[in-house]
From TrEMBL:
Domain (Polymerase/histidinol phosphatase N-terminal): residue spans on this chain: 13-88
Coiled coil start-end: none
Molecular-function GO term, any one: 5'-3' RNA exonuclease activity
Protein name: CehA/McbA family metallohydrolase
InterPro entries: PHP_domain (IPR052018), Pol/His_phosphatase_N (IPR003141), Pol/histidinol_Pase-like (IPR016195)
Highest taxon of source: Bacteria
PANTHER family reported for this sequence: EXONUCLEASE (PTHR42924), POLYMERASE_HISTIDINOL PHOSPHATASE N-TERMINAL DOMAIN-CONTAINING PROTEIN (PTHR42924:SF3)
NCBIfam families hit by this protein: CehA_McbA_metalo (NF038032)
């Protein structure tokens, strides 16, 4: 099975962004121009508890969005919603509500719910595994990384712990831009869709036709006849992750554009990370094999 439809188009977007409407330093118009100038195709303004609506601005699709946040005893949960066509009844979200209610409301209003920065939030599986209806989770969040925060931007371990327990939530990468001092336009998601419309982008995301990136690009991922085959633009290294703590021959190096991996006995899922020469990464969706 192939992850991508080669007859469709690729669109680049960021689904977690803040403006002066909450705790960002730039106005919505300024933020839109920052991302438009960097070649983004779509963008979600996801201010805290402040919904933005879908529209097209200067040729860039604005998917609409909002971020809800909930404090627990030893962790917090942030839920980003994109693609909403009306406001969820979650005002104020900090009082008498829950992350699950936010997810349910986002989905009920036609949106796509994302678990934001789980490593930064100190999320535990006891809290997150019971959540239902998530469309994706952030495997990388730029603002959660150093120097803006104590280097908890990469949620790879959280992802593998989640997948090892059989919950294969798709992955995105986002900036979560606030200060616009280098965290912006760093991490993004490529979506394999028919056209640049809200419906087409959401349909592709729900189908898992997307990958998270900071630069490297997958061109195709296929699992057939017991072999994982990966095509990509040239990278320095590729790593295959799974539920097993150890398995041989899962690291590939040296100007890669294609590699193949035969799963070891006991591997139930595979996911791939690409690394380029500058240290930028890309992350695939999981391939469930058993």
């Amino acid at each position: 099975m192939k992850q991508f439809d080669e007859s469709l188009n690729w669109f680049k977007g960021n689904m977690h962004t803040h403006t002066t409407l909450s705790d960002g330093v730039h106005t919505p118009d300024e933020v839109i121009e920052i991302y438009r100038a960097k070649g983004y195709d779509f963008l979600a303004l996801t201010d805290h508890r402040r919904l933005s609506m879908p529209e097209t601005v200067r040729g860039m699709l604005m998917t609409g969005g909002v971020e809800f946040d909930y404090m627990l005893d030893n962790e917090c949960i942030h839920i980003v919603g994109v693609g909403l066509r009306s406001a969820p009844e979650l005002d104020p979200p900090m009082i008498g509500q829950s992350a699950q209610q936010a997810i349910d409301a986002i989905n009920a209003h036609g949106g796509f719910a994302i678990l934001a920065h789980p490593s930064w939030s100190m999320n535990t599986l006891a809290v997150t595994l019971p959540l239902s209806g998530l469309g994706a989770m952030e495997i990388f969040n730029s603002t959660s990384d150093a120097p803006w925060n104590p280097a908890r931007g990469d949620a790879s371990q959280f992802v593998d712990l989640t997948y090892t327990r059989g919950k294969y939530t798709p992955l995105v990468a986002s900036d979560d831009s606030h200060s616009y001092t280098g965290e912006h336009t760093r991490s993004f998601t490529w979506v394999n869709a028919k056209e640049l419309t809200l419906d087409s982008i959401l349909d592709a995301m729900r189908a898992g036709r997307m990958f998270a990136s900071q630069g490297p690009r997958f061109t195709q991922i296929e699992y057939a006849d017991g072999v994982l085959r990966v095509d990509c633009e040239p990278v320095e290294r590729a790593i295959v992750y799974s539920n097993l703590p150890w398995a041989a021959h899962r690291v590939f190096t040296g100007g890669l554009t294609h590699f193949e991996y035969t799963p070891a006995r006991g591997e139930r899922y595979l996911r791939v990370r690409l690394d380029d020469a500058d240290g930028n990464m890309a992350w695939s969706q999981p391939v469930v094999i058993g």
